[in-house]
Structures are given as C-alpha cells and as structure tokens.
Amino acid sequence: EKRSVQGYNLSCIMILPPKQREGYGKLLIEFSYLLSKKEGMPGSPEKPLSDFGLLSYRSYWRRAIYEILLNVSQKTNCAVSIDAISKKTGMTVDDIISTLQTDGMLQRQPGVSNYALVVDAKRIEGYVEKAREKNPRRIDPSKLRWAPFLTKGAAVLEQPKGDDELSAGELSV
Q: 115: part of which helix (H) or strand (E)?
C-alpha cells in the first residue's frame, strides 16, 4: 500500500493453503519493507493485525532487527540507535520498540528517563541462524527496479550507505 496516509506499507497478505508455512508470507513482508526503504519512508502494516498476522510480523521484525544487532555486536565499541535500525530496515520506530520490549531487550536506566538496549549476542546469533535455516527465501535488494511514488513536498529519508553508519551514535528511544 504505497499511497497510505497512515504510513502503512502493506494492507493484506493472502497465501493460498497449499503454499502456507513455506515462507511466502515473510517474503511478501520483506518485499513491502524493501519498497519502504527504497522510498525512504518507514512503513508499518495496516492495523489491527490478526493473531497470525502479528506472529508473522513479529517474527520478521525480530529477524530483521536481530541481524542488525548481530552485525553491530560483532564490532568493537559500536552503538546503534533506534533511528538507525529504522533507516536500515524500513520499519517504524514504534514497531522496533515494540519488538525489543516484547523480547525484554529494552530496560529503563535507573535515575534517568532513557532506556538501554540489553543484547545477548549468543541468543541473537542462535535465533538468526535458526531463522536462516527455517526460511532461506530472501529478496536480493540489488535486483529491485522500482521508482518510488513521491507526492509534492514529500520528505525522503537518507538511506544508510553501509553497516558502518549504524555504528555511529548512541541508543536513543
């Protein structure tokens, strides 16, 4: 849904029964976020989500976020911001925060109003490995040939040039 006033990037997914549980739903979700990144505007699915839709999206969000956190955790003296994750994934800040809170990875700092991101690198690595084995279907972003629809006066977010840009800044919520 590329002309959504509410910022939705996908309205509905339907996978026919013979192809369910084969990763096509997550592939369509990934494609919608690839379009959001290309457009330079974070997106979110139309809400409310069904129970199965919420499970599918949470699984996709977790994998996308964890892949970035895994990459950052393998570097020394690196930090990542929620905004940087949003730019890298095309996901909204709200969806990122919701996923991190659901996984118990955001913790309030004592005495201040900020939150800290608590990352268990082994847990993240295990999850990412399992997700890659279970659902190897991925979209190659370099193959996408699409020009974003822009309305007059629309702001386009800058796209990160590479993973190095994720290492700049501090965690901010």
A: strand 115-117
Q: Which two tokens stand for residue 102?
A: 């659901």
Percent pLDDT > 90 in the chain is: 40
State which amino acid sits at residue 85.
I
Catalytic center residues: 46
The total number of residues written for the chain in this structure: 173
Q: How far apart are CA 98 and CA 45, in angstroms?
A: 14
User: DSSP label at 43?
Assistant: B
Q: Which of 66, 69, 70 is nearest to 81 (CA)?
A: 69
- Looking at the DSSP bridge assignments, the partners of residue 116 are 107
Q: What CA–CA distance (Å, rounded) separates 21 from 43?
A: 24
What are the φ and ψ backbone dihedral angles of 14, each rounded to 5 degrees? -135, 120
Q: Are 162 and 72 in contact (CB under 8 A)?
A: no
Is the whole model's pTM more than 0.85, yes or no?
Answer: no
Q: What is the pLDDT of residues 106-142, one digit of tens each?
A: 988 888 778 888 888 899 999 999 999 988 888 898 9
CB 85 within 8 A of CB 96: yes
